[in-house]
C-alpha cells in the first residue's frame, strides 16, 4: 500500500454502548478469529461513531437499510426501495420478520425514532449532518432541535423519506451507521454480530442468530483488540471516517501487507483570497512547477480512481501558463500527523534548490494537529486531504462551492456553484459524470487545489484466513471471514 487513511477525528469519538460483562459460549460452528484494530472503541452507538474503527464496529453490530459492498450498496434490512419524483421521495420496504437480538421486532418506526435522536443537537452526532442532513427538515432540526422531519413510518415495514432536494445516492447515505436503527434496549443488536463482552482494550463479538442473514455469517466469534500479536487479521490502519477532512495516519504497507484502494485524495490547497496566490497566474505557475517535481509517488488525480466514472470526470490536461509571475515567497502549512503529507513536504524540501530556480521560496510551517490545520489562516499553501462519503465525485467537488465550510482555498465562482446544483439533481450517471467533468475543468483552470497523492490503506491476514472484503468507502466486511 502506499498510505493509509488518516483521520478526521477531532478527538477519538467512540460510541455509547452496551454489552454484558460475561463471556458466554459462542454459537456452535464457525471459528473464533482475533482481529487487530488501530484503536478499540470504548462505546458502541451508531449515532456517535466518528473514527473509522468505531464506525466499522458499529457497522458489524447495527444493520441499516442498506450495506456498503464493493463500490456501492446492497439491500440489508430493507429488501427493496422505490425512488419517486426524480429522487426526491424514497420509500424503503423492510424485510418481513426482522428482529433485534433480544427478539423484539425491528419496525419502520425504529428508524424514524433513531434519526430524530441522531439529529437532536444534544446527541452531538458528527455524521447526522453529512448522513441525514439532506432529509427535509433535518438541517433545522439539527441546528435548533425543533421542527418537523420528512420521515414517515407508513406501517411496520414501510418507511417513506422526503428529501430537501433530489439526490441520486440516498441509498448510500443510509448505509452509514448514523442511519441505522438505534436499539430500544441496552443489549439489542440488529447486525451480523452482537456484543458479547468487553474488557480493557478488548471487545468480543459473536454471531447474531437473529440477524436476517445469519446463515451467511461464518465466524462464531470475533475478538477485537489493538494488539497485532497472534492476530488472525490486522485490519486497515486508517482512522478517518468518510465525509470529513482527512490526513494519512497509517503509513506504508508493512511486510506481508496487502494494499487497498480508498476514495481519499491528498490535496495541496492554494489560498486564493489574499497574498501572492490571489493572482490566478501565480496559482497556475505554482501548480505547473509542483506537478513537474518528483514528489516520490505516481502523479495523482483529483478524483480517486476507485470512484465510479473517474476516468470520465478527471482532467489530465496540462496547466497552460499565461505568464511567469514575479518571485514568490510562500508559506506551506501541514501537520506531522499526516504521514502522506509529510512525504510531500520532504520531497519539496529536497527540491528547494530547484524551486528557487523557478523563483519560488518556500517556508515550512508545521501545525500540531488536524484541528489546528483546518483553521490555520496565515499560510499560502495547506496540505489537507478529503475522503468522500458516497461513491460519486460530487462529494469531493462539494468542497469548492462559495459557501462550503471546507473550502480551505476560499475560492468562489458562482458558475461552479450553479453546475453543482445541476449535478446533484442529475440521476443519470453518464450525464452527471459529464457535468462533473465540467466542474473539474473549472478547478483545473482556477487552481484552488491540486492533488498530490492518492490514498490507500492496508491489512494483513494470517495463512489460511479468507473472506475479508473491503469497500473503498472505508468499511470492511467481516461476516464472510473463515479459517480453512
Describe this structure in words.
By secondary structure, the chain is an alpha+beta fold. Among the domains are: 66-189, Dipeptide-binding Protein, domain 1 (Alpha-Beta Complex), CATH 3.90.76; 246-250 and 261-456, Dipeptide-binding Protein, domain 3. The chain is built from 13 helices and 22 strands. It has helices at residues 52-61, 108-119, 128-132, 138-144, 170-173, 280-291, 310-313, 339-350, 352-357, 370-375, 394-397, 414-424, 429-446; strands at residues 32-36, 66-69, 72-75, 78-84, 89-94, 151-155, 158-162, 193-199, 202-207, 221-225, 233-234, 244-246, 258-270, 328-334, 360-366, 381-383, 385-387, 449-461, 465-466, 469-470, 476-477, 482-483. The strands form six sheets. The chain has a ten-stranded mixed sheet. A four-stranded antiparallel sheet has the order 4-5-7-6, covered by helices on one side. Strands 2-3 form a two-stranded antiparallel ribbon. Helix 12 (414-424) packs antiparallel against helix 13 (429-446). The protein is globular. The relative contact order is 0.18.
CATH superfamily of the domain at 246-250 and 261-456, please? Dipeptide-binding Protein, Domain 3
Which word captures the global form? globular
Strand order of the largest sheet: 8-9-10-1-11-18-13-16-14-15
Report the count of strand segments: 22
Structural class assignment: alpha+beta
What's the tally of helices?
Answer: 13
Percent helix, as a range, is 10-25%
Largest sheet: 10 strands, mixed
Beta fraction of the residues? 15-25%
**CATH architectural name of the domain at 246-250 and 261-456:** Roll
End-to-end distance, in Å?
A: 26 Å
Amino acid at each position: 500500500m502506499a498510505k493509509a487513511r488518516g483521520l478526521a477525528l477531532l478527538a477519538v469519538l467512540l460510541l455509547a454502548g452496551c454489552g454484558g460483562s460475561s463471556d458466554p459460549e459462542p454459537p456452535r460452528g464457525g471459528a473464533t478469529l482475533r482481529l487487530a484494530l488501530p484503536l478499540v472503541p470504548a462505546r458502541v452507538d451508531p449515532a456517535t461513531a466518528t473514527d473509522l474503527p468505531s464506525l466499522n464496529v458499529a457497522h458489524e453490530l447495527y444493520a441499516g437499510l442498506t450495506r456498503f459492498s464493493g463500490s456501492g450498496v446492497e439491500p440489508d434490512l430493507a429488501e427493496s426501495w422505490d425512488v419517486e419524483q426524480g429522487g426526491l421521495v424514497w420509500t424503503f420496504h423492510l424485510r418481513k420478520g426482522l428482529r433485534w437480538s433480544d427478539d423484539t421486532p425491528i419496525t419502520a418506526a425504529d428508524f424514524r425514532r433513531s434519526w430524530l435522536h441522531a439529529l437532536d443537537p444534544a446527541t452531538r452526532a458528527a455524521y447526522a449532518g453529512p448522513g441525514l442532513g439532506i432529509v427535509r427538515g433535518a438541517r433545522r432540526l439539527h441546528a435548533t432541535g425543533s421542527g418537523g422531519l420528512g420521515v414517515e413510518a407508513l406501517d411496520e415495514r414501510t418507511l417513506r423519506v422526503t428529501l430537501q432536494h433530489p439526490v441520486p445516492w440516498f441509498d448510500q447515505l443510509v448505509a452509514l451507521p448514523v442511519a441505522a436503527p438505534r436499539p430500544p434496549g441496552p443489549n439489542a443488536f440488529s447486525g451480523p454480530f452482537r456484543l458479547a463482552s468487553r474488557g480493557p482494550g478488548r471487545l468480543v463479538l459473536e454471531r447474531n442468530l437473529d440477524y436476517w442473514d445469519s446463515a451467511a455469517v461464518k465466524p462464531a466469534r470475533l475478538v477485537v483488540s489493538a494488539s497485532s500479536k497472534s492476530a488472525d487479521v490486522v485490519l486497515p490502519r486508517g482512522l478517518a471516517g468518510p465525509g470529513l477532512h482527512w490526513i494519512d495516519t497509517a503509513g506504508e504497507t508493512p511486510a506481508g501487507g496487502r494494499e487497498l484502494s480508498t476514495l481519499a485524495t491528498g490535496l495541496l490547497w492554494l489560498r486564493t483570497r489574499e497574498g501572492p496566490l490571489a493572482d490566478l497566474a501565480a496559482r497556475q505557475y505554482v501548480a505547473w512547477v509542483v506537478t513537474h517535481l518528483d514528489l516520490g509517488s505516481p502523479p495523482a488525480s483529483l478524483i480517486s480512481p476507485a470512484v465510479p466514472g473517474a476516468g470520465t470526470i478527471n482532467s489530465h490536461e496540462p496547466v497552460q501558463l499565461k505568464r511567469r509571475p514575479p518571485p514568490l515567497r510562500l508559506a506551506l502549512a501541514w501537520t506531522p500527523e499526516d504521514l502522506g503529507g509529510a512525504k510531500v513536504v520532504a520531497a519539496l524540501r529536497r527540491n528547494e534548490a530547484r524551486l528557487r530556480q523557478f523563483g519560488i521560496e518556500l517556508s515550512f510551517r508545521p501545525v500540531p494537529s488536524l484541528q489546528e490545520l483546518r483553521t490555520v489562516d496565515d499560510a499560502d499553501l495547506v496540505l489537507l486531504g478529503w475522503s468522500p462519503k458516497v461513491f460519486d465525485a460530487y462529494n469531493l467537488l462539494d468542497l469548492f462551492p462559495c459557501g462550503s465550510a471546507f473550502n480551505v482555498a476560499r475560492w468562489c465562482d458562482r458558475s461552479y456553484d450553479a453546475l453543482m446544483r445541476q449535478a446533484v439533481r442529475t440521476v443519470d450517471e453518464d450525464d452527471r459524470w459529464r457535468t462533473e467533468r465540467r466542474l473539474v475543468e473549472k478547478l483545473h483552470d482556477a487552481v484552488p487545489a491540486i492533488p498530490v497523492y492518492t490514498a490507500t490503506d492496508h491489512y494483513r491476514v494470517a495463512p489460511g484466513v479468507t473472506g475479508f472484503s473491503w469497500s473503498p468507502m472505508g468499511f470492511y466486511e467481516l461476516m464472510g471471514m473463515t479459517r480453512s
